[in-house]
Amino acid sequence: MSGSLRRRLFLVLLMTTSTIWICAVVWIWFGSRGELEQVLDTRLQEAARMVHSLVASGNITEPTSALSTDEHGYSRQLSCQIWSLDGRLLARSSGAPDASLAEDGAGFANRTINDETWRVYTIIDSAKGVRVAVGDRVGLRDRLVRDLILGVVAPAALIIPLLGIMIWISLGRGLFPLRKMANDIKARDGEDMRPLDVRDAPSEIQPVVASLNNLFQKLEAARRHEREVTAFAAHELRTPLAGLKTQAQVALAADEDAVRRSALRQILHSVERTNRLIRQLLSLAKLEALPDQAAETDINVGAALRDVIDHGPSRDGVTVTIDPALDRLVVRCEYEALHLVLRNLHENAIEHSQAPGCISWSMDVTQGSIVVEDEGPGIPEDELTLVTQRFYRGRNKVGPGSGLGLTIASTAAARLGADVTLANRDGTSGLRCSIGITGVRQAQ
Amino acid sequence: MRILLVEDDPVLSDGIKVGLGMIGWTIDHVSRCGDAQAAIAATEFDAVVLDLMLPDGSGLDVLADIRLRRNATPVLLLTALDDTKDRVRGLDAGADDYLGKPFDLAELAARLRSIVRRRHGRTEPVMKAAGIILDPAKQTAERNGKLLALSRREFAVLAALMERPGVIRSRTELEDRLYGWQEEIESNAVEVHIHNLRNKLGRDIFETVRGVGYRIRVET
Lengths: 444, 220
Description:
The complex is a heterodimer. Chain A is α+β, with helices and mostly antiparallel strands. Chain A folds into three domains: 5-58 and 76-167, Beta-Lactamase (2-Layer Sandwich), CATH 3.30.450; 205-285, Helix Hairpins (Orthogonal Bundle), CATH 1.10.287; 293-443, Histidine kinase-like ATPase, C-terminal domain (Heat Shock Protein 90, 2-Layer Sandwich). Chain A has helices spanning 5-56, 138-174, 176-187, 206-253, 257-289, 301-311, 324-327, 335-351, 405-416, and strands at residues 78-84, 89-92, 107-113, 116-125, 130-137, 297-300, 318-322, 330-333, 357-364, 369-373, 419-424, 431-436, 442-443. In chain A, the strands form three sheets. In chain A, strands 2-1-5-4-3 form a five-stranded antiparallel sheet. A five-stranded mixed sheet of chain A has the order 7-9-10-12-11. In chain A, strands 6-8-13 form a three-stranded antiparallel sheet. In chain A, α1 (5-56) runs antiparallel to α2 and α4 runs antiparallel to α5. The longest helix of chain A has 52 residues, at 5-56. Chain B is of the alpha/beta class. Chain B has two domains: 2-119, Rossmann fold (3-Layer(aba) Sandwich), CATH 3.40.50; 127-216, Orthogonal Bundle (Arc Repressor Mutant, subunit A), CATH 1.10.10. Helix content of chain B is 40%, strand content 22%. Chain B has helices at residues 10-21, 33-42, 59-68, 84-92, 105-119, 152-163, 171-178, 189-201, and strands at residues 2-6, 26-30, 47-51, 53-54, 57-58, 75-79, 97-100, 127-129, 132-135, 140-143, 146-147, 206-209, 213-216. The longest helix of chain B is centred in the middle third of the chain and has 15 residues, at 105-119. The two termini of chain B are 28 Å apart. The interface between A and B is medium-sized, with 32 and 27 residues.
């Protein structure tokens, strides 16, 4: 389906109109022809009877020559011959042929004389011994029908182009709202995602406008999200750089040894933090680049967790406990992804814990989930759904978080067919993260 | 100068604090929007250095709030974004200047001096009053071509009084300019600095307005 809607509609309308006209012409042709034949035949019959009645009254004259030589138009349509029964021409009207019109019996007949077809009505009066024949030319009849048809077709030939122009203009006007909408959208720059005014649109294209508006909305949301991620990323990457630069300048400018040492310590701290940010960014990139199908192995969750805890960060005064049930839990999945989930949730818990405190890993059998609980400040309720977004750092952020940990955890969990649910702990301060593993195959 | 720094990154804010502290400025530091609003409402700062992305909101909201209260304190925005649109938005929201991360400490200081100077309607980068020429950029003061040997605090007191010659500064105002929140203020600290300055510059340099404060004497 392509091309101009206006042209398509125009062709359809013009063709429909033309077809109606042609049908009318055909109908008139056949209808009028039959009618006309009948009328003309009746006329022949009447004329024959009239002539016969004149013959009957004995008023017969010698054949006269044609009174008029006018052969054009519809004058002298009828020709009349009176023959005796023995074959003498008693009388004939002007314009009647010399050859006999009547030859056969009484009634209607067609005869060809000098390559011309005649329609003849004959009355035979054996009592008076005359045969009256009245006829007219079939060619003339055809001309009559032709002229009648022409009377219908001629205005049509004039009207159809006129109609065409009117249809073209009306279509242009009818399609104006569509064109206006198209121009409105065309005139927008790439930034303009305001919805189109639905009230402006005719009801037929309102669904289109509504869908477009819906699309605009989604596009705008996607772009806003992208802008936010870019902004967060820029902030998270450039702020430590600014810190490094500032501290380096302080170290260079400082006269006092203590100030210089402090600045250098800050630089080390910042490098540490930037290193972690980069590691997290790489984890996320790696996670997103993993092939769709990866090798699955049987993993003992307790052992994997111990590996994470032993190699991950720790905090003095914060103890980590592992539910023995986890040591008995063996899942069949991708090691890399499970490791990322456990590591990031553990690092998040460590980061938000304060000494003295406890981080507990346990198994919630009823929910089918692995649970880690910390004693940190938790997350404000309105931020619970936001913290898994890239670079989102909540109000309760502490320390050198990258803003990516929970994003990585939930992305990696999704890859395993698991999901990470965050909630604040009941009754006590702290965050409870559950990894729902009902969707993960468990080995026995 | 007393500057409020609103920045949530501990390393960067420490660097700015120490770096600007080395040129004799007093820096107060907060890391949240709410604290920034409270600080600005409670204390008069020479300028505010405001990070745009804060944990509990946007620096732009803090800026809008400052301007809504008809507070004309100069504000310099710190941001990690390069987008011109963001800069325009910040400046239109009432910021006086803009600096992208990472930046140079010297440039930050220069920009702050510049917005503070404009705020006081001065076109010259140096302050002149009572025969003294004070250069905030170089942290020097001279009289009759001779450099004056002043301590950091003395320089700050002199600068505060020379900013608007003839205007009386109360003791509390001067204390606010000299000391951050965390610093212990001795009850007669300002008097001590004024006394020392008078010893170095001459008794007549300042006029004491009883019960109100001090002002620099302007020759008539």
